[in-house]
Amino acid sequence: MDSMKKFRNYTITLFLVAIVLLFSGCQDWLDVNTSKDTPTSVPADQTLSLVVFYASQICYDHAEYGIYLSQALTTGGRSQTGSYAYKSGWEFLSMNRHPQWRRHFYDIGVNVNGMIAEAEKINSKNFILIGRTIQLQSTLLTTDAFGDMPLSQVYKSNSPAYDTQASIYEWMLKEADDLIALYNDDAWINNPTNKTITQKMDRIFAGDLGKWRAYTKALKARILLRKLPNWDNTPENCDKIIAAVDDALNDPSYADAIYKYDGGSTEKNCPWGPAQPSLNLGWTQGRANLLTDAVPSRFLTFALFGSYATFAQSRGYALDPRAEQLMTPRIDAGSVKTLRYLDNNIGMATSMKITYYPDLFAAEGGNPYSRNNGYILLMSQEELLFMKAEAQYWKGDKTSSYNTTVDAVKINMARVGVTTDNANKLAYYNRFFQIRLPGETLFTISDLMQQKYVAMYMQPELWNDVRRYNYSSKTNGIAYDGQFVYTVKTCHDGSRNVNPSNFSVEFSLTRPYNLYDAYWNTPESFGENAKFSPNAWINRLNYDPETEDKYNRTELERLGAYKNPEWLKKRMIWAYKNNSFVTSADATEWK
Fold it and tell me: Cis before residue 99, ω within 30 degrees of 0?
């Protein structure tokens, strides 16, 4: 029996479980075929709710890994190995499963294909459009985490050939354009046999095809953004990005793509919330958030947030007012309350406890993600504005880039609950912009991307952005437009001197202290890519061991990916130097 048939039959069973747990009562159980060899047929309107749910879950899957791989969060321990390699020493090859791979190919891919097949039977084109849009989103997330992967031959055999990442990007751009055209085709959106899609079926846009069209335009902009700053950093491509962003934001139906959770039992809770739901289901190996055991990194908290050693009513706990909206300071044994942090994976001092570090779940009125009734963002207005600002910057229009960045930061501040409803808060708010974004004359790509780093907290784009800029910092000597993107200069010690020329504090993004020696701190004689050490960073995940190592080993060996730690260091197609905007102290790093 074909393995894909098994997977589909099992995935449909998961669909029934999820429907019952998430949205229905016991009376809503469907009749299911009992044969193990015959897939169950489920109507499109009963599959859509699960597909939309998984569209949210896959964003969490990628963000949960990426928030550690981008060095925003760390842990109190320092073990080099563990079941969560992204939270320890990057020893990925011993991890049993990565949920992102199966989420894309089975939870989303199989169910979308089944939903489209059922929708075609009844000529309900709205289900087809939404299904293809979610598949496009999932493909982008997956290739950006793994690189080459099955696309043209997927589901045609147990061991499908892998398509190149370049060809996958070509397909995604064409698919985005094809979908936008169909969303504008009256014969599709006003097809008389389209079944009504309710909020219960589609918890993102309630079947509003105009909003799904705007989201598809936004996905196109995100795909095009990958051409910056390395792959195709040209005025022509910058114009395409700006046009795609404007097309999305100016769409009369535009709305942020949000999957809202009600809170309650199991998967009714937001995956970032304190209930810490885990969508394991026995085979996908979903990861519950471990925010109860996480610690904000020094790079995020000290450098980017600008946390102060002591609290003052006039300036809060940190220069950035978002800091105490995204995390809550806690008191230590000495009754000191501050936003504490750790260098990545250096480990806590013996005198410290995890409860002395900030509470990473939502405070009242704060972080909209890390609460049980929070939401997952698939796309936001501020992300689109940051895309536009980046394209404007590389096109040479730094004035517009600065203004767009300021707008994006203000929208993000409002999202996480920053207010200016009293004199202290207003002064606090204004002081942030005086120091971090003092004007277009001093504005650099480093300022832009550092602000996007904060805004993309708990979003999949965080790790994508850091890798697009190759972890640029003084640490590895890689600069863009003469700037070390993730090296922060500021004076956030409480002084009133906000002149950037007098910035006295500097801190760079750094790798974890406890990197697995056999992979990351090897001598040059170890292998071809050992020249990356000691500044090598992780650039991709290894393919899912439970499927690819067992059933598609030939393809992995062809790529050089089979049980090879050097594969983890290989850049994505969009991260290789291809222009004069980027410089490096070690030219051999770009081979």
Answer: no
Q: How many residues does the chain have?
A: 591
* Structure-token match 């009600």, residue found: 262
**Helix, strand or coil, per DSSP, at residue 119:** helix
Choose among 294, 297, 250: nearest CA to 272: 294
Q: How far apart are CA 239 and CA 218, in angstroms?
A: 15
Side chain identity at residue 79, one-letter code:
S
Residue-wise pLDDT for 334-344, tens only, equals 888 999 999 99
More confident residue, 466 or 157: 466
Looking at the predicted structure, is the pLDDT value of residue 25 above 70?
no
Which token pair is 343? 């260098």
Neighbours of 530 (CB within 10 A): 16
SS3 state at 342: strand
- Token pair belonging to 478: 């890689």
CB 385 within 8 A of CB 250: no
User: Which residues contact residue 204 at a Cβ distance below 8 angstroms, ignoring those fewer than 6 apart?
Assistant: 52, 55, 56, 211, 257, 258, 259, 378
Max Cα distance, the chain (Å)? 74
Distance CA 483, CA 471 (A): 12
Between the alpha carbon of residue 25 and those of residues 13, 21, 537, the distances in Å are: 16, 8, 48
- For every residue of 245-276, DSSP letters joined together read HHHHHTSTT---EEEE---SSGGGS-TTSTT-
The tens digit of pLDDT for each residue in 497-530 reads: 445 555 667 899 999 989 998 888 765 544 455 4
What are the residues facing 489 on neighbouring strands?
Answer: 506
Contacts of 222 (CB under 8 A, 6+ apart): 140, 379, 383, 387, 461
Using CA atoms, how far apart are residues 248 and 256, in angstroms rounded to an integer?
10
Locus of tokens 């469907």? 30
Tokens of 243: 């046009």
